[in-house]
Amino acid sequence: MVDSQLRPVGVNDPAVIEAMSAVPREKFVPDEQKPLAYVDRSIPLGDGRALPAPAVLGRLLTALATLRGERALVVGALTGYSATVLAAMGLKVTALESSPALAAIARGNGINAVEGPLADGHGKDSSYDVILIDGAVEQIPDALVDQLVEGGRIGGAIVEEGITRLFIGRRVGGGFGFHPIADAATPVLPGFERPKAFTF
Question: What is the pTM of this model?
């Protein structure tokens, strides 16, 4: 995975590579999907959800430039894989999941997953240094931005005109801006749909 999927797309942060090498990805997928745990594609987990490909997580974590001891929120924690990787990198992780079934699996994998609507985030304002949205969304809710500290970062994937792009955003001076870093197919997270525009 490291040599064939991560390094070729610029995943070169030693902490990211070490953590993704150490965390057994097959532990976080259904038994019938274990032979596919390390393939370069998303893996269905049930409940209409899927685990993004390893390169997606590797790219986002590299671009987020996380530091040990930072507070992180994983939005759409699924079975706990991304949260476990972040914890292995030394971050203090809160894992948020909307599916009770997936949250239960994450807890079984040693993750203290909390349940609730993904777009609402979790915790009080300015709680997190890093927010990882573990899937594709149509919009970035203000509620998530409000939960970033000054200088905090959000990483995820956004769907624009039918194209999914990985992005990194930062909260600075009371404002928030983000920029795309790569196109990448990423499973869609529920609850982040744009309101439909009125048409005649």
Answer: 0.93
